[in-house]
Design brief:
The chain contains five helices and five strands; from the N terminus they run E-H-E-H-E-H-E-H-E-H. It is an alpha/beta fold. A five-stranded parallel sheet has the order 2-1-3-4-5, sandwiched between helices. Helix 1 packs across helix 5. The longest helix is centred in the first third of the chain and has 13 residues.
């Protein structure tokens, strides 16, 4: 299965998505903000490893998901990026990223919805 990096500042959403993806057999690592997510990604790349997918919230402290997606697209251009948000205006901000991201998942989402979105992105 895939190795997935989840970057989400809401601990309950982060835990829910982590469990959902582990149920599908994925190896999951998490970060609580974009800055930590970027550090984890850079450490992984420096070790000669990679993630198969970045799943990130858009609205977060330190570094938002859009800035994270743009940075990750430069460092790991072949890695699919899936964003999630509960805010319509944040979703609109992501529309210009179609060359970088796979999709934006609207919150709240159900277990089957997030599992399908990830499966489709992979």
């Amino acid at each position: 299965m895939a190795r997935i990096l989840i970057v989400e500042d809401d601990s309950s959403v982060r835990a829910f998505v982590e469990r959902a993806l582990q149920m599908d057999g994925h190896e999951v690592e998490t970060a609580s903000d974009g800055g930590l997510g970027l550090e984890l990604l850079e450490e992984t790349l420096a070790a000669g490893e990679a993630f198969d997918l970045l799943l990130s919230d858009i609205q977060m402290p330190i570094m938002d998901g859009i800035e994270l997606a743009l940075t990750v697209a430069q460092k790991a251009p072949d890695m699919p990026i899936l964003l999630m948000t509960g805010y319509a205006e944040q979703r609109e901000r992501a529309t210009n990223l179609s060359r970088v991201i796979v999709d934006v998942v609207a919150k709240p989402f159900s277990l089957p919805e997030i599992r399908k979105a990830v499966a489709d992105a992979l």
